[in-house]
Amino acid sequence: MSDTNGVAISMFTYRKLGKHGSDVIAHPIMYRIIIGAMQYVTLMRPNIYFCVNKSCQFMYSPLESHWILVKRILRYLSGTITHGLLLSHAHQLHQILVRVYSDSDWRSDSDDQRSTSNSCIYFGPNLVAWNSKKQPLVVYKS
Fold it and tell me: If pLDDT is split at 50, 70 and 90, which confidence band does 121 have?
């Protein structure tokens, strides 16, 4: 895939991926190998963390739509090869702040209706931790 055109967006948000379908890919082992390598890449590229996490949910029986997502992530990585984490020092003492951001996507999974929670932690200008987790329980409106 070294000669492919890069893309600007790693994942389309309007496409809902599910585990049901009849178009199972021919080589699921290759899918698992690539996703495993991508999990390692997320250590320095947190911007693909959600996409890779979403792809991991279909490791047991990946469909063609999941394979298309994996290829799109690879094309995104090839187009943004110079991107990565930038760790810089704070110029003044008051700039050393800990900032925490969180977000959730209520009942985002169409298969099991569970929510996904996301968070990231900055120390000064540096991103030091991030997380994306599917919640273990289904939450209903009260």
Answer: very high
